[in-house]
Amino acid sequence: MAKAREGGCLCGKVRYRALGPPNNVTNCHCRQCQMAAGAAFVTWAEFPAGAVAWPAETPLWYRSSARAERGFCPACGTTLTFRYLEGDALDIAAVTLDDPDALPPEDELWTASRRAWAPGDERLPRHPRERKPG
Question: Does domain 4-111 have CATH number 2.170.150.70?
Fold first, then answer.
């Protein structure tokens, strides 16, 4: 049976359940993630979109670029998700998991825009921009 991971927003209005293991877990230092979350970086756990369910309320979606949109709680504003418009994956902000320590990051993306005062994890592979396929 696939492991279920649950989480939600600060106020508890939007909850989710993700089944199975994530495709990857990544610290993203891109400028859009910084601005959307109001933080130096966001740790995303990417799941197949079909593996994520919203038992009650669903996030509101904001089109953050020509290629992607971000989901957030309509009540408290918690950044919850990121997804490309073309594709079948859904990134969940790992810190919104009920057990955020269960999915540590595996690499770092967009380190070219990492804040100088926000040290990265030297143990992780780094990619100046997007992860190269393969």
Answer: yes
